[in-house]
Design a protein that fits this description.
Blueprint: H1 11-19, H2 35-45, E1 57-62, H3 64-81, H4 87-94, E2 102-108, H5 118-138, E3 142-146, H6 154-159, E4 167-175, H7 189-192
Antiparallel strand pairs: 1-2, 2-4, 3-4
Helix pairs in contact: 2-5, 3-4
């Protein structure tokens, strides 16, 4: 694959990134990406900063049938955790991974390393999730990145296919939609920027 030419501009890419937005899961419908497209998207997802080339992430593909089974198990576990849950809340758990034609779990496999801190590895998994979001959106799909309570619950992670030492950086839902999605208010960029003013005061 050819590399980018130094100094080469891609203004259309900048415009695309300025317009990207998530699609509410309630608007999702089929179809999702076919197998070759999904493989290409995941290849792009893996093309991220990765200090030490540790590849501290992996990807799990959840189809609707998988999502239905997982949803039932998550609903049962959620009810154990909170017996006061309402039926509509349990129904939301049942549908958690089956609202899109395809959901991709971006799993952080970060581990202790003599030179590379775990938090850097977590960031790499987050970058992989964002690459997947961006690439799928560029293909015209509806996309939404969700990280739920299951990432911090060992039993829930096991239901999702994760080992005890792994964490779910996020589940990226991919499908299609018909309705226009209005943009939401965005941050005031100027309020986020400052020039370096010397060491911080303790």
């Amino acid at each position: 694959m050819p590399t980018l030419t130094p100094g080469e501009r891609h203004d259309s890419v900048l415009t695309f990134l300025e317009r990207r937005k998530s699609v509410p899961l309630s608007l999702f419908r089929g179809p999702g990406p076919d197998a070759p497209t999904l493989r290409r998207l995941i290849g792009i997802a893996a093309r991220v900063p990765d200090h030490g080339r540790l590849e501290p992430w992996r990807f799990i593909i959840y189809r609707p049938d998988d999502g239905a089974r997982i949803g039932e198990a998550l609903a049962e576990l959620a009810l154990e955790r909170n017996p006061q849950m309402r039926e509509d809340e349990l129904d939301r758990e049942r549908k958690r991974l089956s609202r899109a034609p395809v959901a991709v779990g971006v799993v952080s496999t970060a581990a202790d390393h003599e030179r590379i801190p775990v938090w850097e590895q977590f960031l790499s998994a987050g970058a992989a999730a964002m690459n997947l979001v961006t690439a799928a959106t560029a293909c015209g799909f509806a996309v939404n990145w969700v990280t739920g309570w299951y990432s911090d619950d060992a039993e829930a992670r096991a239901i999702l296919g994760l080992s005890p030492d792994e964490r779910m950086a996020g589940v990226v839902h991919i499908g299609n939609h018909d309705a226009a999605v209005p943009d939401r208010p965005r941050p005031d960029v100027d309020a986020l920027i400052s020039d370096y003013a010397g060491p911080a005061t303790p």
